[in-house]
Amino acid sequence: xxxxxxLYKIELLVRQRGSIPFADLLAALxxxxxxxxxDLEYLxxxxxxxxxxxxxxxxxxxxxxxxxxxxxxxxxxxxxASGLRHELPGLWFNERELYSLLMAHQLLSGIDANGMLxxxxxxxxxxxxxxxxxxxxxDAKALMxxxxxxxxxxxxxxxxxxxxxxxxxxRRRRLQMRYLTRARxxxxxxxxxxxxxxxxxxxxxxxxxxxxxERLLRFALDAVQQASVQETRAKDVAMRQVQAEMDTGYxxxxxxxxxxxxxxxxxxxxxxxxxxxxxxxxxxRFLPDGSWELTLPYVDxxxxxxxxxxxxxxxxxxxxxxxxxxxxxxxxxxxxxxx
Length: 339
Known about the structure:
4-stranded antiparallel β-sheet, Arc Repressor Mutant, subunit A, alpha+beta, SH3 type barrels, 12 strands, 5-stranded antiparallel β-sheet, 4 domains
């Protein structure tokens, strides 16, 4: 039985039994006396579990009101535990789950904004290594080397900008921003009430209520040139409304009239395209010739056109006519570049 599972089981048995003899713990854990003694010492000294030896019952229990190291076998015991419910932080995870957390940490590091999130999560990572023990820590480091996250086309965000966004979001305060609108090449001042952070395709965005435009807008964090947290309380928008207005389009583009695109992928591309999610509300079906027909909503054609072009000759736009025309224009312009 892995060490983490043993520690959890010792804590659970002591809680359930109130006081449990050393021999019963040995039988339940199927370990040597030396291993059990080391586990008990680790629980007391490293994890702060108030487990102590009780002479009258010849067993181990939780001490009433104890917060530090408990007595060793043969020492005078404290009064019987009464209503004490001690929980060992992190021990609700078994060893496989702890390794899964390490992999999740590695994944998060791959989308991190200049290491800002990793710095705040480092105490959690250290705690996981402590729970896994010396041998587990070696295995964990080996695992981290065998998980590689490739983040292409990442647009970096200044750490101080990201931290101010997070602070305003959690404290529910307004933000004053100097923001570059790339489509117009203009820099302007914005006062916004942040609603949520969005990570999409290696780029961070802020969904916020814009007090100049009086509506929800999505801002790319890498286009924020300066930001300061205000003491004015942020306007709260119901998350249901945020989702309804910001999540119905295709990709990162939100707002506008909802339309429906119909795409047909060749029989060659169908096996993998049929397994992909282009939009949560998409619908797909195989056609008699083995091709795959995909229907999905969008409000702005910009990103959808780019994704269609990535598929080259493997896809054809069937509807609407405006999307067909947009793809044809982009293909013609690309062909003109090559003469």
